[in-house]
Amino acid sequence: MPDASPVSDDPKAPAPAPRALAEPVDGSPEARRPRSEAPVPARDARDLPAGVPAAAPEPTALPPDAREAGGPPGAREEGEAPYGRPGKPLARSPFVVGLTAGMGLLTAWALSQALVTARSVIVLIVVAMFLAVGLNPAVEALQRRRMARRWAISIVFGAVILFFVLFGLAIVPPVSQEAASFVGAVPGYVQELLANPTLKQLDTDYQILTRLGDYITSGGLAQSVAGGLVGAGAVVFDAFFSGLTLLVLTLYFLGSLPSIKDYLFALVPSSRRTRTRALGDEILNGIGGYVAGNLLISVIAGVVTWVFLAVLNVEYALALALVVAVTDLVPLVGAIIGAVLVTGVALLQSGTLGIACGIFFLIYQQVENYLIYPRVMKRSVDVAPAVTVVAALFGGTLLGIVGALLAIPVAAALALIIREVVIPRQARL
Predict the structure, then answer these.
(1) Is the pLDDT at 293 greater than 60, yes or no?
(2) Is 246 exposed, middle or buried (0-12, 13-18, 19+ CB in 10 A)?
(3) Keywords in UniProt for this one (predicted)?
(4) How would you class 300 by CB atoms within 10 Å of its CB: exposed for 0-12, middle for 13-18, buried for 19 or more?
C-alpha cells in the first residue's frame, strides 16, 4: 500500500523524521514503558538525525533554602529577592479584626453623639415637614380652583402667620397687665405679712425678717434676680428663634413638597415605584387629613370656650379661649390641661365661675370625644383607639409634646403598611 503522506518535490525541503521518533505503535517497547519513564532527551544535537532540534534540558531543582528565599542561593547577594517572598496577608489576623471592630464602635459612638447634639435641629426639620404635609391639602384645594401654587401657598401661610399674631396680641397684654398688678400689690402683701401675729412670733423666735433684710442688702437677691432674668431672656429668645426657623422651614418644605416627593420616589426601584408611590400618597393624605382635622377640632373648642366665657363675663375670655385651642392640639392630655388652666383662672375671680367652668369642660369633653372627633377624623386616620393611646404615650415619652403630635399619624402610616404589605405577604407564604 503506497504511503498516504504527501512527498514534496522540492529538494530543499527537510527530510522526513525517522520512524524511531514517530508515535510508538501498540506492542512496541516504547508503548509498554510507563509514562513516568519517559526517554531521556539527547544532550548533544549530533546524536539526533538532521532536521530534529535538540530538546531543552530539564531545569535543575532548587534546594529548599533557595525556594524559600525566592531564588537560588546566590540571589540574596545579587539583590533579586533580598527579603524573601511575601507571606500571607493579615486579613484574618486577630489584631486586624480587633482594630476593625474598635473603629466600627468608635464610628457608631461618634454618629450617636452627632445625632444627640443635632437633636433640636432634627426635631425642627421633622415638625416643619409635618406641618408642610398638613397644610398641603389646603394648598391643593386652592389649586383645584385654578389658583397658582405660589399664590395658594401665600394665602395659607399668611393665615398661619395671622393666627400666631392674633394669639400673641391676645396673650401678651393680659399677662403684662397681671404682672404689673402683682408688682404693684407686693408692698401691700408685705405689710399684711408683717401685721400677721404668727409671723411676728416666728420673727421674734428665729429673726426671719432680719435675715431676709441681710440677704437683700448683701446683694444675693440682686444676683438671683439678675440670673433669673438672664435665663428667662435666653429662653424667650431661643423660643422666638426656634419659632421663626420653624416657619421658614415650613414655607420652604411647602413650596418644594412635590419635587421632594418625586425625588424620594425616584430612589425606589422601578419595579416597585408605582405601588410605593400609591402607598406614599395615601400616607401623606392621611397625615394631611389628620392635621386639618385636628386644627378644625381645636378651632371648634376655642370658639365654644370663648362664647361660654364671654357669656359668663370671665376676664380675658379671648386669651383663655386661645389657650384652650392651642392645648387641644395635643392628643389625650391637651384638652385636660386647657380645662384645668381656664378653671383655675376662673376660680381666682369667683368660686361660682370656677365651678361653672369645670362643669362646662366636663360636658364638652364628652361631646368632643364621642361626637366631634369621630366625625372629623373618620376620613383621615384609621387607627384603633387602643393603638392611639399607646402611640401617644410612646411619642410623648420619647419627644414630649412633639412626639405626642406625631404619634398618631405615624401609627396610622405603620398600620397602612402592615395592612397592605406585611399581611398580604404573610398570606402568600
Answers:
(1) yes
(2) middle
(3) Cell membrane, Membrane, Transmembrane, Transmembrane helix, Transport
(4) middle
Q: Are 133 and 291 in contact (CB under 8 A)?
A: yes
Task: Say whether pLDDT at 84 is over 70.
Answer: yes
- For residue 90, name the pLDDT band (cuts at 50, 70, 90): low
Which residues, at least 6 apart from 297, have a Cβ–Cβ distance to it below 8 Å?
A: 328, 368, 372, 373, 376
Residue 331 near residue 400, CB atoms below 8 Å: no
How many Cα neighbours within 13 Å face the side chain of 210? 7
48 CB burial (10 A radius; 0-12, 13-18, 19+): middle
Buried b (16+ CB within 10 A) or exposed e, 54-89: eeeeeeeeeeeeeeebebeeebbeeeeeeeeeeeee
Instruction: Give the C-alpha separation, 292 to 325, whole Å.
Output: 14
pTM of full prediction above 0.85:
no
Q: Which amino acid is at 275?
A: R
The stretch 336-346 carries a mean pLDDT of 89
Tally the residues of the chain: 429
Residue 317 contacts residue 325 (beta carbons within 8 Å): no
DSSP 70-110: TS-TTHHHHTSSTT------STT-HHHHHHHHHHHHHHHHH
289 grid coordinates: 387629613
CB 381 within 8 A of CB 392: no
The type of residue at 317 is A
For range 362-367, the mean pLDDT: 91
**In angstroms, rounded to a whole number, what is the distance separating the alpha carbons of residues 18 and 21?**
6
